[in-house]
Queue: 3 jobs
Job 1
Amino acid sequence: MTGAGQVEIVHRESVGCLIAKLHGRLDSLSYRPLRDELIKLAVEQPRAVIVDVDHLEIQSETVLTVFSSAWSRVQVWPEVPILLVARDSVPRRSLGRTAIARAVPVFGSLREAIASIPAPPARKRRSAGYPPVFESSALAREFVGRTCADWDLTSWTQDVLSVASELVENAVKHAQTALRLRLEYRAGLFAVAVRDADPRMAVIRQTATGRPDGYGLQIVAGLARAWGCSPDLRGGKVVWAVLSARSDWFQKYPAWSPPFQDR
């Protein structure tokens, strides 16, 4: 059970999905905490997050965008669908008057919601845990190299090495907690995610002159199709990046020598 502002969330697992029952009042105060809690559930990578809204008091139809907002934050990664269940006619009518259902479908029963979940795309996944020391970057590079070779994806190795190294080193430097590197390949997309126990969100830092303070996340942003930072159900965060094709980062900055290269 977790609390989210004025909305209480009780979640359970069923057939690979996370079922979240909401109790309380959804308003401007509870909007963001609820959105973040839904994102946390999606980051666990269930088949779907199914949200029961029958016992949710809704301040106005405007705050219902919390569901489409959460969906927009997870549609690229971890690409987990969010579904709503509203047996009661009142919330169903409220949801029906908005455009939310275009992204977050609404069902009259849990059974209907589960039956609607499409088969997930074939995925390859691996993960490894590391201590918060800079030597972990070298271990992560070895893990990435082995994984790309095992998956017959050696053409991805350089970019994945770059992103994984930067995310691991960023976690070691700023979070200073144990971390877990997660690799995932599906349908032409390679995802790299690093989980740590520090709840502070990762941002691209700038100096007083407005220039980037270091190149870690700048490199990630340059290489990735999309990247982001999501809160974690355990109280920390996950920084992730999704790659779709080789970037021209190193062609743009040929004189820059990335820190993961052996010197």
Job 2
Amino acid sequence: MVRFLSPEWLAALERSLAGIAALTTASSQLDLVIQQVVLGAGSYSITLRDGTVTVTPGMAEHADITFTCGLDTALAVAQGTRNAQDAFAAGELRLGGDVATLVRVAPTLAAVGDAFASLRAATDWSAPPA
């Protein structure tokens, strides 16, 4: 089991994302950094560039798009009990950065589907490491 948001979990997320052919194909045409900030629990970024997908712990030096939410929302989205669009509509997920870029890459991101699905069974959902 890997604890949610731990370095081991982030490495597993990277492997999961890298295994999605549609995403790696799309990343060959993108130069995009998406940052996730989980208030009080940590942050990470996903970089799509040159046909690769990387996940990096901590704050990105430059993020094109930043999603910010509390731990309960992050857990619900990662566990598949809530989708990001509903959390955004309810004001529980904030969006920052270049919204036009997000609109432009939305079809690519939609092709990813549920990137967290393969991680759920191997994830310890207790409090993330500080």
Job 3
Amino acid sequence: MPLRREDIGAKNTSRVLAGVLAFSLSMVSLSSLAQESQPACKTILGRVVSIQGTVEVRHAGTRDWIRAIRLNTPICNGDLVRTGVRSRAGVILAPETLIRVDQGTVLSVRAIQQETEAELHLEDRVPSDVLSNACGASYFITRFPRKFKVKTPYLSAAVEGTEFQIALACDRAELSVFEGRVLAETLVSQASRITLGTGQVTSAGTGEAPSPIQVLLRPTDAVQWALFYPPISEVSPDQIPSDCWGLASFERAVCLTTRSEELLRVGRAEEAQTQIKLLFELVPLSPDAHALSSVISLVKNDKDKALKLALRAVELSDQSSRAWLALSYAQQAHFELEKALASTQRAAALSPDSALVQARVAEILMSLGDAKAAEDAARKAIEINPRESRAHTVLGFVRLAQIDTKQAKAEFNQAIELDSTDPLPRLGNGLAIVREGKLEEGREQLEIAVALDPTNSLIRSYVGKAYYEENSKERDQLAATQFR
């Protein structure tokens, strides 16, 4: 059946919404971005569209780093972006290039004639204690062939409309291609050029030619820092202990649980798994350890393992709201929405003062098409905590189902301001903008959602629909790629 614009968000918005929430694992146009004070520069290349932790910008020709606090901070020609420990950023550049920036990364962008160039630097980097990507990493999505290039001290990448990651291990760089083709080259010799395709990896150190091409066996593992891990409790950064050692067993278990979840919130799954392993060693039958492991398995698309772990968590403690929330995500991934609702309601009974849990109840109710009950639950979440972003997201979908796109966008934008790393309000915002007939602007919001969670198949499908609706040979090919 041919795709129509209404399939993306017009006549059947309620059905679209149910699909969004039921199939989701969790749950800009530059001209449309909010204007704010801009640096004195001739060329604005893009803006920061996602901020988590410490993100700083150093404008060309200056020495001072300025912390990016507001979304849509402008990025000018020659500027550098720096992320701190346990921090991430999202940057959108014209034309149609999105960059996710991992922790401990220093990235510059510049326009050279008709080409945009990004560069990962070793100097001025923020020291970190990460287990991998020790000198930073960036995930790139660009749709314009031969107009974008990435440089590192060890190798360069010229792209042909693709998605790829470059990770720095301080003494070498690794290039992983997830979609499309990339020409990798070093300064050793002309013979050091190789072309990589989808699912291939190479690396190079100082004075080396690119290593022989290898197959990227588990793409999710390579880019796990860029993924979105759904929360199962409310954790404030102020509550994160710097060290769990020396505490009594009970306090240490609480500490390890809290640290694990906060690490997942900033994409540090590898570090979180280290903490979870310590938690298992301390409390082998820990429901929290099983619940957190379930979330990780779910994001890695191992849905059966996620469900098994979550059921075990509930079996170990039916008084744990974390366990019930983890189970609700796993059940939702298996399309068991009624069971997922029962699990979230059990979590709400155990944690009646949790805005996150109430927002999760609202999300599942909206998945089931009960917009009135979903709105009531979302408003209850906001009464508990007005800064609960997921509650505003659900209200946005309620308004979208009512064809009130103006109010829907207001709620989605509020959710984005509160949590710019969550892909779901970006998805909703894109659908609302498309509903108003602004296909290109809406599609760019959907592309940002992809950058915030690159392995989310549902978001990919909506980006594919938007490409298809743009009705050109090039866009049709991009749509097919997204659907695959």
